[in-house]
Amino acid sequence: MFNPRETYSAAGQRARHAERTGVRLMFSVIGFSTAYFLDPEHGPARRHQALEYLRRGKQMIASARAGDEKPTHTVTASPAPDPPANGPHSPTAGDGLRIAR
Q1: Do the beta carbons of residue 47 and residue 84 sit within 8 Å?
Q2: Helices assigned H by DSSP within 38-92
Q3: Considering the entire predicted model, what is its pTM?
């Protein structure tokens, strides 16, 4: 037989469990991303790459909002950053894909 009190209690327990799992997942993401971006060897290049990616995304959104005359479904620019020149935060030619670890 259907007992509303037990059903409500079980739903509350599931909700609390899901909330705890979500909080654990959030702290795991924060911890891993902190370790990823603050890595002493590759952190500066990763931070530079992430900031460049965000800058390009912001430019693409601004240009899409500016062009309200005709909506289009074609992609004109890639949000991925261009390979950086050999600056202070750039990987050397031998680094290859080590940044993406």
Answers
A1: no
A2: 43-66
A3: 0.47
